[in-house]
Amino acid sequence: MDNIQRFEEEEDSGYIKIDRYNEDKIAAVADHYKDILGQLGEDPSREGLVKTPERVAKALQFLTHGYDLNPAEILRSAMFREDYSQMVVVKDIEVFSMCEHHMLPFFGKAHIAYIPNGHIVGLSKIPRIVDAFARRLQVQERLTNEIRDCIQDTLMPAGVAVVIECKHLCMAMRGIQKQNSVTTTSAFTGEFAKDKTRAEFLRLITANLH
Ligand SMILES: Nc1nc2c(ncn2[C@@H]2O[C@H](COP(=O)(O)OP(=O)(O)OP(=O)(O)O)[C@@H](O)[C@H]2O)c(=O)[nH]1
Ligand SMILES: [Zn+2]
């Protein structure tokens, strides 16, 4: 609940008030899940399951709270004029999202870079916008492009690079049941269209520098 409180406190920074956590919505979603438990052959009134519909409703609301965030505002809230024109790379950002096809998790890492063009952005805002887009029903390709577009359109840097690598539980615990396959997606703008710049980014995200 800490996150929720923070979102509510900082309405001017893109952490827009969440009305998805209101009691009526939780109760409505929970009612459906009570039905679903019955349809699955369970007894929703047995002790271990009594509070499950409400727990699921709250979990789902958390897992989709990105709809209530404004990623561009989050970036805008910490942009600083700065004369730095080298690549800034934030790598190994944990990603947790849910595929829109099965509503099962996909998770992994995002690696993001931009080349400033007069402005830098507060570093924490990069993972924050990853979360703002990831905490929605997604496909990995759209998640990748949305992050790229948000940084490009808001910060207007000389270039943006986004690489995301994820495991999809809908491919691991059901369906094709491939436990170890990883999907990589990428999106680039501006300077990253150049082979040399893109190669430097790829080298930095694969290097073990720390
Ligand atoms: N491109 C893309 N596909 C995804 C993502 N997440 C899940 N999928 C795929 O979405 C597809 C949905 O295909 P359908 O044939 O409609 O669904 P399905 O019958 O459950 O497919 P299987 O998973 O093959 O059993 C599957 O191939 C999933 O692997 C994603 O982030 N990007
Ligand atoms: Zn899926």
From TrEMBL:
GO biological process, one term: tetrahydrofolate biosynthetic process
Annotated SUPFAM superfamilies: Tetrahydrobiopterin biosynthesis enzymes-like
Catalytic activity entry: GTP + H2O = 7,8-dihydroneopterin 3'-triphosphate + formate + H(+)
Residues that coordinate or bind Zn(2+): 99, 102, 170
Keyword Nucleotide-binding: yes
Entry EC number(s): 3.5.4.16
Top-level taxon: Bacteria
Domain annotation GTP cyclohydrolase I: ranges: 31-205
Family: Belongs to the GTP cyclohydrolase I family.
Key words of the record: GTP-binding, Hydrolase, Metal-binding, Nucleotide-binding, One-carbon metabolism, Zinc
GO cellular component, one term: cytoplasm
Top EC group: hydrolase
A Pfam family hit: GTP_cyclohydroI
NCBIfam families in the record: folE (TIGR00063), PRK09347.1-2 (NF006825), PRK09347.1-3 (NF006826)
Protein name (database record): GTP cyclohydrolase 1
Organism: Pedobacter hiemivivus
